[in-house]
Write a structure and sequence with these properties.
228 residues; mainly alpha; 2 domains; 72% helix
Length: 228
């Protein structure tokens, strides 16, 4: 829809060029998916750094010396961190956003520290995969996904992401929910198969070729409809 709208606004009828842009936008959506998963890892890393610094204080408190390290031992976060697929994609596509723009990791970290989600997790005596997974899901859903500063950052990085965020958030939630104990963390596929990928471009081309027919039909049935 966004590609069709862009073509209409620019009065551009180069369907091949716009088709390539559509494919590029979809591929970049996978970057957004991976960046969200990387954020979870980076918050764990930052927590570990903060704990190490607190232990070295001159006047360290008992809490500083014996901190709650539950998040550092989170089984699901460790599985994400050890994912070969995630690591390979990160390296190949140079997704070092959270090293370059580390202030966003700090924003999410500070929001997590203030949250009831985190307090409840630390207070839970049970150590199990289900507890760890529930925490990670809640962390993403309640802290990362709705963060406005992070959303603005994503939009600044790539304009098409502003419309992709809701879908990608659901995608991440689905991936986390499907994760299993003692299993390799697997990234979801962008397409089910090659036919699925081809269908996207075919649908775009057909919609472009018949857009004037569709507009006339819509206009005849909805007189107040504005194509813009």
């Amino acid at each position: 829809m966004q590609s069709m709208y862009a073509m209409q606004q620019s009065k551009n009828d180069d369907v091949v060029k716009e088709g390539k842009f559509l494919k590029h936008s979809i591929l970049k959506m996978f970057d957004l998916y991976v960046l969200n998963l990387l954020m979870i890892i980076e918050v764990q890393k930052l927590t570990e750094k903060k704990i190490a610094i607190s232990k070295k204080k001159m006047l360290a408190t008992k809490e500083d010396l014996t901190p709650n390290t539950k998040i550092l031992n989170n089984v699901l976060i460790d599985a994400i961190k050890n994912s070969v697929g995630l690591e390979s994609y990160y390296e190949i596509n140079k997704l070092n956003n959270w090293e370059v723009d580390s202030e966003y990791v700090k924003i999410i970290y500070e929001e997590l520290l203030k949250s009831e989600i985190y307090r409840n997790y630390l207070d839970t005596f049970e150590n199990s995969f289900n507890v760890d997974r529930s925490f990670v899901i809640d962390f993403f859903r309640e802290i990362i996904a709705p963060n406005q500063k992070l959303a603005e950052y994503y939009e600044d990085k790539m304009i098409t992401w502003v419309d992709d965020i809701p879908f990608v958030n659901t995608w991440v939630m689905k991936t986390l929910s499907k994760s299993k104990n003692n299993a390799t963390f697997i990234l979801e596929s962008l397409y089910k198969n090659k036919d699925d990928e081809d269908f996207v471009l075919e649908l775009f081309n057909k919609t472009f070729l018949k857009q004037h027919i569709y507009e006339k039909e819509i206009a005849s049935k909805t007189p107040n409809w504005e194509t813009d």
